[in-house]
Amino acid sequence: MTGSVVHDLEASGRGFRAVVLADGTERMNPPSAAVYGEPADGCLVRIHSRCLYGEVFESTNCDCRWQLRQSLRIIRRRGGVLVYLDQEGRGAGLLAKAEGYRLSQEQGLDTFASYSALGYKADSRSYADAAALLKQLGLSAVQLLTNNPAKVSALEVAGIKAEMRQLVQRKPSNETLKYLTAKETYGHAILSGERPA
Fold first, then answer.
1. 7, 74, 141, 173: which sits with the fewest CB atoms below 10 Å from its CB?
2. In the chain, domain spans
């Protein structure tokens, strides 16, 4: 595949292809993808941004780990693509994320409000590289596993038709629920009537 480094890996007893974008990027950790099966237009896709706290530290203050695992379960079963972006802290970086959490805990703010108070954009992520990777895979239409309409819009602008397939966490913890409620307030299509009692 032109512009990418491709090789085979295995997880949960299933083989898949790892694709790392090499074209037009000098970043040490460029966008990458796990490809299950032979992707074709209309296949399932998850675009996921790195979250150290959720994925590695297993924090329940966000839903990132759940979304990643749920998406992988679905994609492994049905085939599709997981695109992984090194965009910690909604693109602001780990230090900004840590500062935002601290301010949130000190002043009772949600992380979006704390970012604003610290001078950071609420969300500075870009999905252009994700679109480029999907195009290298020959995709022009996808079913996007997401609750974030901004991801759908970004793909559409890049020329990839995207149908949003929501991921709804049925029983989030109290900490996760606070985060989901904040995300919903700032434009994510999160709870959709599934708000726990």
1. 7
2. 4-87+126-183, 90-124
Reduced to 3 states (helix: H, G, I; strand: E, B; else coil), residue 47 is strand
Opening angle at CA 86, ends 48 and 168, nearest 5: 20
- By annotation, the residues acting in catalysis are 123, 125
Instruction: Going residue by residue through the chain, which has 197 residues, state the pLDDT in tens, using 9 for 90 and above.
Output: 668 899 999 988 889 999 998 876 667 888 999 999 999 999 999 999 999 999 999 998 888 899 999 999 999 999 999 999 999 999 999 999 999 999 999 999 888 889 999 999 988 999 999 999 999 999 999 999 998 888 999 999 999 999 999 877 667 667 666 666 666 666 555 554 443 33
- How is 75-115 classified by DSSP, letter by letter? HHHH-EEEEEE--TGGGT-HHHHHHHHHHHHHHT--HHHHH
Q: How far apart are CA 190 and CA 180, in angstroms?
A: 7
